[in-house]
Amino acid sequence: MRTPDRLLDAVSISDLTLDYILDADGQPHLHLLGGKGVYAALGMWLWGLRVGLAVSAGCDFDLTRLQPLRQAGIDLRGAQRHPHTSTVVWAQQYAPDGERVAWNPRRHFAGTALADSLPDIDGFSAPSVVRAHHVDLSRLPADYNAVPAYHFAGDEFLRYPQIVAGWKEKGTLFSLDADWKGGPPATLANPDRIVAALAGFTALLPSAEDVYQLFGAGVDLRQAARVLGSVAESAVAVKLGAAGSLLYQPQTDCFDHIPVVPVVAVDPTGAGDAYAGGFLAGLLKTGDPLEAALWATVSASFVVEGYGAAYALGADRREVTRRLAWLKEKIGRK
């Protein structure tokens, strides 16, 4: 692939998955393009950023599935294919109450012509498959090393510390939305072993579930955000699902609650990742964490309206502007 005509604004670094969903009405949605890296890239793309996608696909992945992203202008030269491991697969079924449970697509369609083309998994690929996937930062195209912003949704920043340190020396923006830590939870009173690895990130964007994994179930989210904010250079935004998000700005010790944009939501898959991408886009273009949180919320609102990451590619940019204006009015921001 040739180098793009203009430099990239940001790179999304994480995984790529194939998703399989059985909705609450029993309708299947199969072979959907997904993954944290893809959804985050779309969250940036919705704001007109020139985005590079650095993801790890399996040796069995059909690269033509990425064609809609390329046609939309997302740069795919950073996509890597693992030579020995299959693509990560995610499969969920929606219960009537909206809860998601693990689903086995092949078992569900056993005895039909579809069965052989579907994965035989219970909810998610085996841990060995998941662990095998990471983006090799040393193999990225040269111009991917000279962009103003990077988003991580995996542990690549720990695997390639020298490369990341080189990027940081250039004053680059970094955001993180990653389940990167194993072991028992830390405490708010003694968080050093948790936060030490996060130094240098401009924005930390965990979900509430991520925070509970870090510090224990039921921990006060505001106190946890303050602890994380001790190393964040700009902001911490805790994603609360349908309840919106909680933004903390350490420079001012200020909290803001951002509500969701009211839309007909059919599938929350990837919403948090699109939020993260939108946040980095807003921070890059405005430098204002609160404005970034609004952009993030708008990005998430488009993802939840359909199934699969590619759905958001049909978004009307005028509607992006309208939703941002609604959200600003809702929180009283001019």
Overview of the structural elements:
By secondary structure, this protein is α/β, with parallel strands linked by helices. The protein has a single domain (10-16, 35-87, 130-331), classed as UDP-N-acetylmuramoyl-L-alanine:D-glutamate ligase, CATH 3.40.1190. It has twelve helices and 13 strands. It has helices at 36-45, 67-71, 105-108, 127-132, 156-159, 161-168, 192-195, 208-215, 221-229, 271-286, 289-303, 317-331; strands at residues 10-15, 17-22, 28-34, 51-57, 80-81, 88-94, 100-102, 149-152, 173-176, 203-204, 235-239, 245-249, 254-258. The strands form two sheets. A nine-stranded mixed sheet has the order 5-4-1-8-9-10-11-12-13, with helices on both faces. It has a four-stranded mixed sheet with strand order 3-2-6-7. Strand 6 (88-94) and strand 7 (100-102) form a beta hairpin. The longest helix is centred in the C-terminal third of the chain and has 16 residues, at 271-286.
Average pLDDT, all residues: 93
Helix content: 25-40%
**CATH architectural arrangement:** 3-Layer(aba) Sandwich
Rg: 19 Å
Beta-strand share of residues = 15-25%
The total number of structural domains is: 1
Order of helices and strands: EEEHEHEEEHHEHHEHEHHEEEHHH
| Unreliable spans | none
> Which secondary-structure class do the elements indicate?
alpha/beta
Helix count, per DSSP?
A: 12
End-to-end separation: 43 Å
Describe the largest sheet: 9 strands, mixed
